Each structure stands twice: as structure tokens, then as C-alpha cells.
Amino acid sequence: MSHRFAVEPAHVLMFSRSIGEPDPPLDSPAPVPPTFVMAAAHFDPDYHLRPRPGEPWVGSSGVPSQRAARLGPGAGDEPKDEPGAAPVLHAEQRFEYHAPVRIGAVLNFSTRPGERWVKDGRSGRLEFGELVTELRDEMGRLVVTATTVTVRATPAKGADR
Amino acid sequence: MSSTAAPAVAVGDSREVTVVDDLTRTQIVQYAGASGDFNPIHTDEAYTTQVLGLPGVFAHGMLTMALTGRALTDWFGHDRLLTFSARFRSQVWPGDTLTTTATVTGLRTLGGAQVAEVGLVTLNQAGDEVLTGAATVRLTGPAT
């Protein structure tokens, strides 16, 4: 399933300011900052790190939620109501740039799972997973490949392991 | 199309950039809004401290990567990057000052163009590594 991501001047402006970049020229197709494509998240209708009207949200409102929910960058990771659930963390991020992304571009993107692997050590288990997002132009040509590596750390149980 | 010529570089060339000085919670909020990542661990002090028991909110790994990317684009421009990768080593907290060192670690030819391999390390004010990474930059041939 792919989603449309229009690279808009005001969005690039706000992103640039948030990372300390000078305001981009808004009247010409300037290139976007190298990590800007992560903002495709705004255009993923199922993105789980964005509150949705009418749905419970793990962040605090009047009284902080007592659900020790666990969120992470992985697509499809649902908040878990188990206090013992290990959090999913963003371990690594990679970008491959096949063509420049400029203000005014209209991209389509889709995300698929990549590799998964496990590392076991004395302190516990690390479960790694990849999510690969491909962003294409309107001709279907690959523009950027973005790979997110998440990690879930489960500590070893007990001292006699 | 960019008409700027690529800078001449040699293996070992290095540049250091302070990419953020005394990071504010407001900048983290700006990044959340722009990037779309509203994970409350980055912006919701009540959630982070009272529910997760952490000292407070901390920055998105991707904010640190974006800041690190400025060291690359300041040096090479925006049109010559072929790859950019990062590992998040430790948390970045409000008040942190981060400095990125970019170092040319290799030069090679790829499809007729000269390509620089660049190592990246971002340290906080205590000298701890918060991010390590790498990039490849096309030095010759037209900027796309």
C-alpha cells in the first residue's frame, strides 16, 4: 500500500527550523534536508506515533496515563498494556539517495518489513528488525530508500543465568 | 540543478560543527511537529517521568541525525549525498550541546565519479558519543 507525500514549502520550512537549518528559499525548488523524508509519517494514515481523534492516546492529559505503554518507531507496534513489555527503540537509520528530493516534489511511499535478527548475550536478548520505506517519484522511479532498524532489549532473567 | 563545484578533499580532512548549543525542549517540540513523530517520550514530561520513571523527556534519535546531517550539508551541499547512516548510541537531553566531527575516511571511484566516504561522530558536552554514522558523497560528475 503506498501513500502520497507532497513535499510542500511550509512543511520544509518548519522542518528546517526544527533542525537549525536556515529557512529554505520558498520560491525555487530547493533540495530538502537529508532526513526530511522521515516526515512522510504525516501521510501514513496508520502511523502509530500520532494521536487520532476519538482514539485513546498514551500521552498524558489531565492525569498521566497509568498504562505503562510502550511505543517505538516500528510500524504496527501497538502500545502494550503490559508493564513488563520491553520498549522498542530506534537503533539505526540509513538513507540511500537515488535522486534529489526538492520542494514541490510529489512522492509515493510504502513500507515493508526487512531483515530480523537476534543477538543473545549475558545481559539478555536484543531483537532487531528492519523497516524499509521506498519513496518514489510520480514516474515510479525510486528516489530514496530509508531503512529503520529497531531494537527490543529483553534483560536476562535472574542472576543465575 | 546545483552548479556548485564539489570541494576538493583528501583522506583525513575533517570538519567540526556545533550542531546544537543548549538544546531546548521547544526545539524538540518543533521537531516532533515537523517530523510527525509525536511519541510522548520526547515532549510529555508528565508521561516520561510519572509513567516511565525516566529523568525527563529526551530528543528523538532522528533529531540528532538531522542535526548531524547539517555537518554534511554545510561541507558538501545538499545535492551530492549518496548515502547517510547513523546509529543512536545514547540519549540526548534538553540542555545538551552537540558537536559533530565529519572526517573523510576514503576516496574511491564509483561508476566514473569520485566518491568520498565520510565518518561521522556526534558528541555531547561531556564527550559522550550520542551518534555515530557515515555518509558517501559524490565529488565529481554533475550534481543531480
Describe this structure in words.
The complex is a heterodimer of chains A (161) and B (144). Chain A is mainly β. In chain A, 6% of the residues lie in helices and 35% in strands. Chain A has a five-stranded antiparallel beta sheet, with no helix packed on it. The radius of gyration of chain A is 19 Å and the shape is globular. About 6% of the residues of chain A have low confidence. Chains A and B meet through helix 1 and strand 2 of A and helix 1, helix 2, helix 3 and strand 2 of B. Strand 2 of chain A pairs antiparallel with strand 2 of chain B, so a sheet runs across the interface.
Key traits:
heterodimer, A: five-stranded antiparallel β-sheet, B: 144 residues, 3 helices, 34% strand
Provide the succession of SSEs of chain A. Answer: EHEEEE
Overall mean pLDDT score of chain A? 87
Number of helices of chain A: 1
Structural shape of chain B: elongated
Query: What strand order characterises the main sheet of chain B?
Result: 1-3-4-5-2
**Secondary-structure element series of chain B:** EHHHEEEE
Task: Specify the oligomeric state.
Answer: heterodimer
Point out poorly predicted stretches of chain A.
Answer: 74-82
Distance between the termini of chain A: 44 Å
Estimated structural class of chain A: mainly beta
Number of strands of chain A: 5
Percentage of residues in helical conformation of chain B: 10-25%
Distance between the termini of chain B: 6 Å
The count of β-strands of chain B is 5
Note the total helix count of chain B: 3
Question: Uncertain spans of chain B, ≥5 residues at pLDDT below 50?
Answer: none
Shape of chain A: globular
Structural class of chain B: alpha+beta
- What percent of residues of chain A are in strands? 35-45%
